Model the fold of this input.
Amino acid sequence: MRIYGKTDGLAKKFDAAYPGELSARLRWWSKTLGIDRVRLLRMMGMSARQAEERKGEDIKEMLKSPDWEANAQVLEGGLHRLLALFHYDWHALAERIHGPVAETAQEEPSRVTRRKGEVKRLRYTPDGDASDLLINRMAAGGPQSLSALLAHLAASPAGAGRAES
Done:
């Protein structure tokens, strides 16, 4: 029963802190979860080059493009669902993203063993980069979309920022 009271309190705090406009909401997520601007733009589906070139632009102007607005809404929806899994405790989510976790801190092997021998794992998607795969996976929904989003966030470059109140 106690967890529900805490979750309710955190949800109310979230509602009070969460901005109304999409561009402001994206800035809120970026600041709260410690997501740097380039990573945020990549998660919206921009290529590495586009994100680097446009990182200084006003996000409100970027969202005038229907495609970027739609991608931003998909990203925002994924972040909402992820936060709900953490019972609206955005500090715990930020810690999960940036803090050392034994299972994810270890590098995965680049090869896996199957019954018929050894098979190389694919490191990259053949039809695009990781941000393309992420935005497509989030748009498709389902449990893989949240695990893909969390993994992508956890792979953020070190020193990209920490969550703030």
Q: What stands out?
A: Residues 101-126, 158-165 have pLDDT under 50 and may be disordered. The chain has one domain: 2-154. The first strand starts at residue 111 and ends at 114.
